[in-house]
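Researcher: Go.
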Amino acid sequence: MGFFDLDEFAQEAEKISIIPHPLADKLSLDKKISYLGMLFFSAAINDGKVADGETKKFREIGFSLKLQESDINETKETVVGLLTNTSKMAFVKEAVSLLQERETAMFLYCDMVCVMGADGELSSDAEKFLDGMTKFLELEERDCCFLKEYSAFMPEKKKSKAAEIVQKYRTEKFYFPEGLIKYYTPVLDAVKLHGGKLPLGENQICDGKFILEEELIVGPGSELIIKNAEIEFGLNGYINIAESASAVISDSSFSASPVQPKDGEEFAAFMIQSNIPLLNINGCYFDGKMIKCAICQRGKLNLSKCSFERLNGGSYYAIDGGIDSVFSDCDFMHCTGKLCHISAGGKVSRCKFTDCSSEDEIALFENGPLYLVLFERCQASTICERYGDKEWRKEIVCFKDCSGGKPWDNFSNSPVDYSTWLEAYTRSKENENA
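Model: Structure:
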């Protein structure tokens, strides 16, 4: 071997480009090997062998499950070494016994379809095998119906047409395994969400792209779950959450349509309006396209690790939270007009405001602490305004390269310079990760 093992280097480079399988961190090593073994087995259904030309595909599947190459090769050898029907049946029963959990079973079904019908066509033997596997995996009838309809769109040229099937099952409150839709059909065309009042109970908007062009009402007794979704809001589209409803919103993106309103045209100012006592939004991205505001929450609003860009606060604050709201680890970028408001008792920590501007104030935080907040290249008559009891606050706030009128009003402590802020911010992040 020379200075550097280039074969190993090439293998590691190959792994980097492979998208991790949604089950990679959920299955034990034994289950991963059984899972891959069943894929090798299903590949041999049509002609009785695992073709050498399919080696790369199985390597990619194995690496996506975070298996080592030695595990992949040994699994293939095990399947190829099954010579009698008795040994093959025993192998299937033993492997399937580890893979009967619903989420695992549904992913396995989809992967087997991809292996056996890469060209979009399944042989009669493959269809018969899949039908038997649904029974061995103990999948419920409704799950089987979905898998048979959805898997017909596995081939690359058909993926975008799976949207109607996915939306049909969503409206029927079908529970999709986390990440399944995004993994197999990432190029789905956006699905149009129908406005009006949601049904009672749980309603999901997950794992896909959506367009909302009218009011979507989450009424009393309804729950809305938004996760791993991309939602584009037309001029009149917004989500309205009633006081006695509930909502769970995480890991999603919300954006205004790029269509500009005509002069004097009325439109829905906010993407989300809520009246529930507590609204948690985690790991989300909002883009107002210089048209819309983001959130108006009358109760407590908890924002964590969210990003807001190009919001347009005119007559309203673009993000308006009620009493005791908490904003933490959030970024606000390239926004105009009145941006943030928190009623009394709230807290803002480790948040950054960059390149924001307003003819009035950018932020109004009533009677609550600001900790490790940075305003950078912001311009306004008053960048951050406060009022209320200021004696008890202990704050670290920095205004870097800001302009306009006075940067702040009614602060308990004088702002710090950027190096002091950055040192405290870095130390806070390190302490959290320790």
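Model: Residues 163-433 form one domain.
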